[in-house]
Amino acid sequence: MSLIEIKNLTHIYSEGLPFEKIAIDNLNLNIEENEFIGLIGHTGSGKSTFIQHLNGLLKPSSGEIIVDGTKVDKSSSNLTELRKKIGLVFQYPEYQLFEETIERDIAFGPKNLDLDEDEVLKRVKSSMDSVGLQYETYKDKSPFELSGGLKRRVAIAGVLAMEPKVLILDEPTAGLDPRGRDEILGEIKSIHEKRKITVILVSHSMEDVAKIAERIIVMDKGKVFLDSNPREI
Length: 233
Ligand code: ATP
Ligand code: MG
Prior knowledge:
Strand order of the largest sheet: 6-7-8-3-9-10
Strand content: 25-35%
CATH superfamily: P-loop containing nucleotide triphosphate hydrolases
Function: ATP-binding (A) component of a common energy-coupling factor (ECF) ABC-transporter complex.
Subcellular location: Cell membrane
Radius of gyration: 17 Å
CATH topology: Rossmann fold
Largest sheet: 6 strands, mixed
CATH class: Alpha Beta
EC number: 7.-.-.-
Number of helices: 8
Organism: Peptoniphilus faecalis
Structural class: alpha/beta
Keywords: ATP-binding, Cell membrane, Membrane, Nucleotide-binding, Translocase, Transport
Distance between the termini: 27 Å
Bound molecules: adenosine-5'-triphosphate, magnesium ion
Helix content: 25-40%
Number of strands: 10
């Protein structure tokens, strides 16, 4: 059994549209534990739609997704369990910041898991450390006043604090300068190595992902166009 099994997944957007848009087209894919996947493709190829399915945010038009042996069902209570396993950092990290301080923002998820306060604090510190944010310097700052790169780091730390089995990042380098881009890619690589978790890194850029991913999946028109080892491309 693979960690994630995607079987004949199709997603058609139709709500509010005068036509139907097939965003995911009969996609089949297995993802294993501890893989580092670079998911790339042109704009509109279906990357964001696909990863929202992995997180149970969308309902398939047809097909199914099985995570850790359990079928993802948007309408059922297994969504909370799913979100503990699959952490998704959105393309626009602003959507994930809602508390007044960085510490509270990152602690938000773990606090809802019935963990004791010491464990919550431990997770906040360790996930801030993983993205290069020093706890004492940043804990009381407002996440809304940060630069784009720092906002993204806080959003990643918030997801890591849930200690997921899979970390999915949608375009984490968008809008960053080359130095910021290299820093965040380096942090993602070290998160993968230290925490031994599956990473799915979504990007427009083959250059970004070829350096660090162990498996490259190229999407085109809602299908898997290429699935290979970067060293073989
Ligand atoms: P990008 O690289 O620009 O982020 P993407 O690969 O993430 O693109 P998606 O956002 O998944 O692609 O979009 C896939 C297709 O579905 C596109 O044609 C897009 O226009 C369409 N689409 C995405 N979201 C919606 C929506 N909410 N309603 C209707 N169509 C949508
Ligand atoms: Mg996208």
